[in-house]
Amino acid sequence: KRKAAHWPRANSLSRSRGAMNSKLTHRLLPLSEAGVAEAGDCLEAPRGLFCLPAVVNIGVQKAGTGELQTWLGAHPLMLAHGGEVHFFDGLRPSAAMLRCGQRQRTNLRQRYARHLWHRRPLSRDNVGAAASSAMAAGAPLVRRLAYEKTPAYFDLSNPALLACAVPRAELLVMLRAPAARAISAYQMCAGHIHGKWCQASIDEAIGSALTRSASGSVPRLRRRHLSPQLKRLLTMGMYSAHLHRWLEHFDAAQMRILWLEHFKSEPFECMDAVQRFLGLPPHDYRASATRNEKGLWVIGKSKSSSERWDKTPPSPEVNATLHQFYAPWQRTLAELLRAHNLSLLPARPIPG
Question: Which pTM does this prediction carry?
Answer without folding.
Answer: 0.88
